Amino acid sequence: MTHPLLDLAPLTAAHFAAIERRVASLLSTEQDVVIMQGEALLPLEGCIRGGARPGSAALNVVTGPYGQTFGNWLRDCGAAVFDLTVPFHTAVTAEQVGRALDEHPEIDFVSVVHAEAATGNTNPVAEIGEVVRAHGALFMLDAVASVGAEPLLPDEWGVDLCVIGAQKAMGGPAGVSAVSVSARAWERLAANPSAPRRSYLSLLDWKERWIDGGRRALLHAPAQLEMLALEACVERIEAEGLDALMARHSAASSATRAGAVALGGGLEPYVLGAREAAPVATTLRAPSGVDASELVAKALADDPSLPLIAGGGALSKEMIRVNHYGVDATRGAVLSSLGALGAALSEFGCHVDLEAARTAVSETWPSE
To answer: What's this model's pTM, rounded to 2 decimal places?
Structure first.
């Protein structure tokens, strides 16, 4: 018995390269784009292990859990790591990055997360890029959550390694990712004897065996389903329009924040400044005396498909996330999520105003 998802013709090198070009267009980049056959942690770790080495020094900006992971990888590579950690309810500033670089002129690698879906903040990458470029360090950006949700211009912002994943705002699969690589980054990787080679983590393998060879022979059999899903998701973005997609995420963020404040019940935005709130996820602080994970469990009892989740790790008791990205960046998803949270808060004895929340959402996001 044939099956459309199983009996697929092999993905050709030409088809693979065509998908790469469409991803490059999405990023408005002239840099090389490498699509990697795994979740975005694959190219993120590959970038760090290729760019850092014993004797190098790195500035690692920590505005959430992914920044903490990057610091661990950098140290594992033997780099001297200077963590710039800011409270998770805010964003880092270009001035803070500039001061750190001035204090440590030996820094030659900077890692930043654009939008932290896990904590709900977003960092001013355009301004940070100016500071990093003036210093001369290599600039790596985790744009997995931000791509498709807010402006992302790696070439204009001086980003040397820009990693994206399709599973959030792009509305695509989690099992495939991509990275744009500047000429300066390729030079840095090639000069690093510690950079992965003949490895699944190796960007250099893709450069030497795929790009330099004219993109005629793939390194290995590509993950067909994920590649076709990535192509479909890019097609969907092209059909909707990138500006429209970003506007939809911005509207979802503003409406969720306004609706949660109007709902009351002791809910408060976790990220204090609206300008620093990520468009992919709104994080909320649970009312005093209410466990966020228990609140979310009650909210999901009737509809487990709602994009609600408690914060991770130490944040699980205090943070609620409304993940309004991709297909959930809609007014209906926002209203349903707030309604479920309101009902759950009522069970905890908190006074809520569902009508006020609905009105706030409608006033903030009048139509789809």
So the answer is: 0.96
